[in-house]
Amino acid sequence: MMPPEQENTNTSTTGNTGPSSIILTNWTETVTVHAEPSLSSSISNMSSCSAQDQGLQGQQEPSLSRSFTILRASLRPVTLMFADVAYSVCLSTKGTGFTSGEPKSARAVLNGVSGVVRPGELLAMLGPSGSGKTTLLTALAGRLPGKISGSITYNGQAFSSSMKRRTGFVTQDDVLYAHLTVLETLTYAALLRLPKKLTREEKIEQAELVIMELGLTRCRNSLVGGPLFRGISGGERKRVSIGQEMLVNPSLLLLDEPTSGLDSTTAQRIVATLRGLARGGRTVITTIHQPSSRLYRMFDKVVVLSDGCPIYSGQAGRVMEYFESLGYNPGFNFMNPADFLLDLANGLIPDTTRSQDDQLEFQGRLDHHDDQNSAKQSLISSYKSNLYPLLISEIHRNAQDPVLLSSSLRGSEVQWTTSWWQQFKVLLRRGLQERKHESYSGLRIFQVMSVSILSGLLWWHSDTSHIQDQVLFCPAVCTLTFQALCKLAASLT
Asked: Are residues 352 and 336 in the same domain?
């Protein structure tokens, strides 16, 4: 039995994993990326392309040249390596009073997940609901609270503030202002997050370029909308959320289920956009629940999780070959690989001796938990014996790459984008723009400012351990203040 990852990574393979020269025109640059697993080849190709672009800058306008140069300097390849990542949460037990005599039990959310993602690659995390996909994505983004065991490195270094500024994170729920247009949303994000070396006109121009690149020109002047009134569509909202992160040209982009709630055509456009962003020299990681076969073909690598444990981590084009070598064959002809992987992650092993109708009836029954658990343990054991040693050796080999270490040293500078006063002006203008549909009065302005001052005093020089008490106390203070203001308004009238 020959695991698919055992071949030399420098040999050419078929499908989307082989080496090829890909030329993509992005909103920031035209990048030639040699889709080879080696980081040194990616960096050399991007540097040679940068030299070619410098010869073309003289033919562009000065403002465009300046903004492109600054944003190109912020694009540095990031190789993400994670090994034996584990995370547990404590489950509270029921008891009388404030304390309980029983000790709190711990539940393992992640257990021994490993993988490598290089610049120019799109990694998809697959698994059923509750398998730990979002937890792993949050841990890779450096946003997971608590203690995480294992190793997560970015170009061989630990997570830092400079790496945080080079990382974009798109949540599953789109957090957008409902009464702002698409152009206003991206413009305010550009004024806040782009470098202060750029002028206001250049930042606005950069927002226009992102709108054009993401295909939002048709709805650029439409309101985003919210639960109370309809605005742009779900796919357009997701692209606006991606555009907010793409404004800073991140080297590492992480997305949490960007295709949830979208139809197949819109989901394909979103994944095609992510694939194009990855081909521009970025490292893109996304969780996805149940992709179609067309979406699966766009992935370079996949990580399949089952109850927090990995059962596969490697090239997306070799996954069927790997499980067939273990004796797991899809029960149907022309089966979607993603559906096959989800069945295995749930412990549903296809039985080729049954007919298709019998398999559907058998998988629909819920009284085979022991068989499913044994199948999951078998898949986890096969991963540990076949794929895990190869991944660990690959991580150790990449950690000693001199090109990887030199790129991490180049990205260690600290830079603030805008000043405090500039951020205050932009946020104030955005708040007024969001509330332009509401009626203003002196009493309302006084009410908002007084509650804001009281809320700010609650958190002034406060200890992080007392945040929960202040969160519970703040609504009571705001309610009392509002009642006092209402009585004052009634007495004045």
From this structure: yes
